[in-house]
Amino acid sequence: MSRTTAEWIGKSDDAMPPPRVRLRIFQRFDGKCQECGLPISGKRWICDHRIALINGGENRENNLGPIHETCDKTKTAADVAEKSKVYKKAAKNRGISLRKGPKIRSGGFQPAAAQRQASRPVDKWRGYSS
Ligand SMILES: [Zn+2]
What we know:
By secondary structure, the chain is mainly alpha-helical. The chain has helices spanning about 20-30, 70-95, 110-120, and strands at about 45-50, 65-70.
């Protein structure tokens, strides 16, 4: 019977996995980027939280996967969009309106005749002549 290895769990959300854990993560995913699926060999890579911390993911080995540093930018943008979507859905399901104020209504357009009337220069002396 082989000895089981304890899963690495970060002491805080900022804690970085040590090299031995990074190696385990790399091997677990066969050295493939979990974002684009291509081999990582020779390129810079990072341990990415598969479920982002901002979306409730945990800083632990089972939630980490290798991704190219260049793929991280795409994933981070997607994570932020996901967070926004989840937040809006959660608020809506609880009857919370995220609208900041009343809907702004347009004053509408004046009929063409009224516009012509308004733009006509006013003779301020008219009406005062004797
Ligand atoms: Zn990639």
